[in-house]
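Risk register update: the risk that structure generation would not scale has been downgraded. Supporting records follow, first protein first.
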Amino acid sequence: MKIKSIETFSNTFVSMVRVRTDDGAEGWGQISPYNADISATVMHRQVAPHALGRDANDIDALVDDIPEKEHKFPGSYLRRALAGLDTALWDLRGKLANKSVCELLGGQPRPFPVYASSMRRDITPEDEADRLVRLRDTHGYSAFKIRVGKECGHDEDEWPGRSDAIVPAVRRAVGDDVALLVDANSCYTPKKAIEVGAMLADNGVCHFEEPCPYWEFTWTAEVTRALEIPVAGGEQDNSLPLWRHMIATHVVNIVQPDVCYVGGFTRALRVAAMAKDAGLACVPHSANLSMVTVFSLHMMGAIENAGPYVEFSIEPTAYYPWQEGLFSPTLEVNDGKVQISDAPGWGVEISPTWLAASTHRVSELD
């Protein structure tokens, strides 16, 4: 079964990928969000030429061979494009087997716990606490993540005193029986991160994400060694050798590969397997309601070292309007959980309306 064509349907924010084989089978995947139109160009120029005519069942060989063929381009865009091919092939595999991707891996589709992930730093501690309480009472969330510090902030807060105020405010509002996670988005030096970590510990925080610039492995490792709170990270990292180093040296306690950033489902599974061998939990990064959250749910429903929840963005379409109308059925939270689909493949259908409004491009076998 050979890959006959690779299509992209793109806008600036997101690009869907359809792979068709010479016997008429097809699968859908997604390139990483943000500047997705650029990644789609990379797909047709640097990924598709190496994939057309290849065996659609041999996903592992494809995700190994293509980065080698393009070894002069070790950066993010190639991996973001590769994720579109890889995830489409997993969907194809599931449809041919009449199984969900979760089931292909030996997992069981089921309602899976999610944590309500806030993306906002432009919100006051009081308003953030109020909206998280409403979400807890409406959707049954039992875990929340909030933002501290300033993105790549060089030890600065979003505004003076915000982090010291928001953590206790949210803890008081949601209560002690709710898991509280925080994300610093590469804000701190080790000294400052350790100081902030002490405050987090006093407020029962159970997950301190990306405390230091993510590229400063030694800084993050210093914070991990100093704190009792589990330190999480890795969402930006797309190099498997760097992942191997991070895991072997326990730079973090919790690994967070992003299926779309790391180069696809296959490569994310490899990161999770490395982490399992090292005794580390895996909680993938899935900070928007595109297909990346669908991918993460299937992955977490099957891997042995899955953490307790999947990241689930609470930002509405008014905040991320590009998320609206991508696929159906939409992901719904009930009692703090989202159902992992038991339908074949990823279990979703890409919206024909969305596709009609996108920019279409195809690479085909001669």
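Supporting record for the second protein:
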Amino acid sequence: MKIAIDAMGGDYAPQKIVEGAVWAAKELKIPIVLVGDREKISEELKKYHTEGLPLSIQHASQVIGMHESPSKASRSKQDASIVVATKLLAEGKVDGLVSAGNSGAVMTSALRYLGRLHGIYRPAIATLIPTQKGHCVVADAGANSDCKPEYLFQFAIMAKIVAEKILSIENPKVGLLSIGEEKEKGNHLTKHTYPLLESFKNFQFIGNVEGRDIPRGKADVVVCDGFVGNVILKIMEGTGDVMGKMIKAEIGASLLAKIGYFFISPAFKKFRKKVDYAEYGGAPLLGVKGICIIAHGKSSAKAIKNAVREASLFASKKVNLEITQKIQEANLHSCFQPEGNQNVAKFENENNHSDPTFSAKSN
């Protein structure tokens, strides 16, 4: 097992990235390849005792910035750290990669150099959201702003596998995110996705779920398009951050509150750990031929360490193999016959966009 880390990606690169890599090598005993400017990485490594640690450097002379066009930059900057790291994965020299850099560049590079798993139409970003009952896998969380029913159907299959193999949830409950629980509610996408999920007997579909149901833990898997999923992720991230600051301000406003906090601080620490994104490392890009973990742009060393742990877990659990097998077993096209095929055609007609590379009749 060996994991490549984009050492130049992220707001705090290379300092926090290298620190996290050293932490991962020490604690997890996983060989790490730091990809990026050799001189800068070497200078950072001098800050730590690394003798005997499974750390190596793969030089990359370029960096793709956060505000650069992912497609243009990944084509023009062939020696960019994320491109070089992806090529290492494509060549089988590493078993997974972690990047806190430009997420669009990660996805573009993965599609260009790794390709999609057999039978997958669109990759999806899956993110873990803490709930009252544990965790919920939300997919897609940002890879596809515009989706079709078939995409969401596959997102459900892939996210269900993550819930089973990574979260160890037996027979996870799958919900379709909408504006009401009733089958008839929603937009064109949700209304035409519902019958596909409902007719598939290989997972426990519980129907529509609303946004408030996610933190309540009503479903173990929630499916939506990437635009909505990313908005949900950012709202929850912002809400958690603001609530933490508000609570801290209230505690500091009075002596009585400070005394009370002394007694309940252990509970607060447990809660903070549960909602801290750094505990989860990053979000896997599902549906590509390789393990890619997209970490937060502001990732700390702790987040990078846990992203390495996550990448190794996905690789060891053979998640991609399971996805390929389940997609084949699903026999997707037969799920569209006869009602489903008409449903997909109706969706495309109503939205006036037919994708010649992706239809119910494609192979």
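Residues 336-341, 352-363 have pLDDT under 50 and may be disordered. On this basis the risk owner (M.S.) recommends closing the item.
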